[in-house]
Amino acid sequence: MTGPRILIIVLLLFLQPTVYAVTWPSWLSTSRGKKQVVSLPQRKLQLGDFTGGTGASAKKTLGAELTSSREFQLTEEGAEYAVSGSSVGGRVTGRLTRADGKLVFERTYAAPGLDENLSALADDIIFAATGKPGLSTSRLVFVSDRSGTKQIYRCDVQGKEIQQITHHPYGAVSPSLSPDGGAIAYTAYQAGFPIVQVLDLGLGWERTVTDTAGTSFGASFSPDGQRLALVMSFLGNPEIFVTDLGTNTAGCISDTLGAPSSPSWHPDGKQIIFADDRGRGPRLYVAEVPEKEKTEAKLFLWRAGPSFCTDPEFSPDGRMVAFTAGRGEDAAVIIKDYPQGKSQVIQSGGAQHPSWSPNGRYLCYTQHDTLYVHDLHTSQRRAVLTRYGAISEPRWMR
């Protein structure tokens, strides 16, 4: 089915989830015993001297950043890599070399803050040594009612540097970060109906993308940041649309009489997974995104397991899907191989709204108004933010 070309403004819907009683199938039962901690191999790294007036504090902070990443073992002997550099007045120069003495990179970081520069250096070291992005500079966005209405906030992966992003009188929900973290799409209420706004986090300008009638919600940035997937109802029944932010056009990729929600992109940009309630509880469907206009989109049911599935999100490598199963106190965060394979309950007892870290090792989610980061390799989790109002809908910057 193809959708008409339209002049688009990005809208979203302010929804409160309904509570359902769910009986878990046997294959979703979880052990309440002590979780096994897996010991993973770490690369050996020698942390050398940092010269300059702030060199000593820079070395200490960088060591803490690299240790917390769990990717390195800091050592003086048998190191695969060595890092050294200088720090003067917050300006940092970092140098990474291999054990054979070959220079991997030498870069200077001149952001206003010393910690910001060291976080960028730590991420560059992690990427150069492991091929996976670091998390020191990544950010989380989430919804909280701390101010009295639901608003969107941003913080780092340690739950620090908290910043309120929106200040809408009637609230804002359902955030989605662009891949580079420079923009955010979210739903706000204006003129009596929900509307999706796009906010440039660097320049501060804000815009809508269409003035079509009807409601829309669930915006999600494509991997290239040039498109949005969202639900729109201007044709009558809600459907999944893909909008091009450059040309302000949109095309319908679903054909349903149900209630679709929470679309999420495959990292190759060719598929979108979403939840759709067709009367028997929300299930997960996958739509192929047409490469050419006027090409019919293919749609199929993805058999995730339980009949109440929401909030799906592909892993960064596209090989797994994280989603919420169930509602209310019985909700659980589950991951499942894609397109088929085994599934695993990551956290039950009310956990929901999972989102993958850029390196695919962690999930963030909420449980009882607390924001958690969960290490999928070790099965350990830590509370990132608590006692900060009712926290929901976290999303990790890719």
Written description of the protein model:
There is one protein chain. The protein is mainly beta. The protein has a domain at 43-130: ABC-type transport auxiliary lipoprotein component (Rossmann fold). 8% of the residues lie in helices and 43% in strands. α1 packs across α2. The relative contact order is 0.15.
What is the fold's blueprint, element by element?
Layout: E1 43-51, H1 55-68, E2 72-74, E3 81-88, E4 91-98, E5 103-109, H2 114-130, E6 139-144, E7 151-156, E8 163-164, E9 172-177, E10 183-190, E11 193-200, E12 206-208, E13 216-221, E14 227-232, E15 239-244, E16 249-252, E17 259-265, E18 271-277, E19 282-288, E20 299-302, E21 309-314, E22 320-325, E23 332-337, E24 343-347, E25 352-356, E26 362-367, E27 370-375, E28 381-385, E29 391-396
Parallel strand pairs: 1-2, 1-3
Antiparallel strand pairs: 3-4, 4-5, 6-7, 6-29, 7-8, 9-10, 10-11, 11-12, 13-14, 14-15, 15-16, 17-18, 18-19, 19-20, 21-22, 22-23, 23-24, 25-26, 26-27, 27-28
Helix pairs in contact: 1-2
Please state the second-level CATH architecture of the domain at 43-130. Answer: 3-Layer(aba) Sandwich
Please tally the helical runs, counting DSSP H or I stretches of 4 or more residues.
2
> Overall 3D geometry?
globular
Structural class: mainly beta
Largest sheet: 5 strands, mixed
Q: Write down the CATH class of the domain at 43-130.
A: Alpha Beta
Strand arrangement, major sheet = 2-1-3-4-5
Our Rg estimate from Cα atoms comes to 22 Å
CATH topology of the domain at 43-130: Rossmann fold
Number of strands: 29
Residue share in helix: under 10%
What do the pLDDT scores average to?
Answer: 86
Beta content comes to 35-45%
- Classified in CATH, the superfamily of the domain at 43-130 is ABC-type transport auxiliary lipoprotein component
